[in-house]
Amino acid sequence: MSACSINIDEFSQNAPDRVAATDASLDPAKKDAIKARGVKMVFESGTGFYNALKGIDLEVRRGDIQLLMGPSGSGKTTLLSILAGLLTPSSGSVKLLGQEITRMSRGKLTRFRRQNIGFIFQGFNLFPALSATENVELALNVKGIRGREARKQAEELLEQVGLASWAKQGPRDLSGGQKQRVAIARALAGRPELIMADEPTAALDSQSGHAVIELLRKLAKEGGCTVLMVTHDPRILDVADRILHLEDGMLTTPETGHAP
């Protein structure tokens, strides 16, 4: 299975203008879901220029959970945003699923990101006036899936994350862990192959955090999804395939303290 799923029916084939991974990326010999080379990010400030990222080389294999750790202000969220195609680096290249996103037009990149990447945020980012089902449906609508099919898939996704009985509830009636599960269900809309998560357990208690971690582990190991996660949470260390540390705009591995 080439897209992220645990146990869910095939999604609609009618989503328009899909920008999927290249055929080459489906070759078992090409195992990297994410590949970055020489990524630098320079920001202009009132006193000059700030080198946020200093030549990042990074590879994430398909089906892996890779953690990106480091102190506040080290550039973790900036790097995640570049790898997700939300920011353009000052220099360097990023390939996702075999396609170099740094050379894509803005329109093609938007479509590629919409169809292939699911985002999970620390603050959940749910619409307060919508029910859990409607929040997931909205993400499906953006991908061209609407009406009864969108409702059916949204309900299946909420069942997949253990929230079937809470589907009609709004965010104000959900606990932090439940809100994050809705956010994960929304991230899975359209079966993206990549999940990009920014501190997904930071606002959760121990029990809720453990449940979310276990769900992300299942997505990677049973559903074939690739998870790249920025985190400070030591509870996640045991489920990670690889851990990288970012400090002063440079990556190191915890085992060696040197660049990977």
Give a quick rundown of the structure:
The protein contains 6 helices and 10 strands.
Task: Tell me about this structure.
The protein is α/β, with parallel strands linked by helices and 260 residues long. The protein is 28% helix and 25% strand. The chain has helices at residues 76-83, 106-116, 132-142, 147-160, 176-187, 206-221, and strands spanning 32-45, 48-61, 65-69, 91-96, 99-100, 117-121, 194-198, 226-230, 242-247, 250-252. α6 (206-221) links the parallel β7 and β8. α3 runs parallel beside α5 (176-187). The chain starts with 31 loop residues before the first strand and ends in an 8-residue tail after the last strand.
The parts where pLDDT drops under 50 for at least 5 residues are 7-30
Q: What integer value in Å does the Rg equal?
A: 18 Å
Order of helices and strands: EEEHEEHEHHHEHEEE
Number-wise, the strands total: 10
Q: Could you say which overall geometry the principal axes of the C-alpha atoms support?
A: globular
Q: First CA to last CA: what distance? A: 29 Å
Strand percent estimate? 25-35%
Largest sheet: 6 strands, mixed
* Average of pLDDT: 83
- Helix residue percentage: 25-40%
Count every helix, treating DSSP H or I runs of 4 or more residues as helices.
6
Biggest β-sheet: strands ordered side by side in the sheet? 6-7-8-3-9-10
- Structural class by SSE content: alpha/beta
